[in-house]
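Lecture 7 notes: from sequence to structure.
We start with the chain below.
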Amino acid sequence: LDQGRNRDYSIKKIMDYDQVRAKISDAMMTDPTLTNITDESRKLLASRKKTEDDYDVFYDKYFRAIRDIIQREGYGVYVPGPNGCSISIPLDELAKDITSSFVGFDCLEDARNDPSITDIYCLSYDQIIVEKSGHNVPYWKHFRSDQDYRNFIDRILQEDNKAIDQGERKIVDAEIFGIRFNVIHPMVSSK
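Predicted structure tokens for the same chain:
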């Protein structure tokens, strides 16, 4: 990812993360750059399996467009820092987090990119275990809420034209971008 464009970024509108995410959600439907990327990805990937290379290409396009919107609009998110001071989330980090929540693997993005992690087990929105270097360990991140977790599952399954329900599809296998998923409805297994 291009990391060199932060120096021209000035925060004009202080918002919380969910407010910025809502603005980008609106832009996903109205911003010409984002809608063109979506159309391009749908056309290209409609006729074939989605590969990891496809993911990287389109993720980077979305990342750049979302970062440009955040930069142009001057959206800023502050978080608690050392000594009780607030610090702003750096532009690229904010853009990466938001991009991952819309078109990526959300809080699992770092795990997806870590070659020492071979499996990811999401037991709930805030309980994730990864197999790292052969050992199961708690993952250091989690989804923002149960609703974000459910939205992620639905989005991933939709990418492979699948869905989970309380009927015959309580256990669903899916594969996108060369990554296999197994989703189990809570009525089958609560954890």
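Points to note: The chain has a mean pLDDT of 85. Helices lie at 17-30, 32-45, 52-73, 91-103, 109-113, 146-159.
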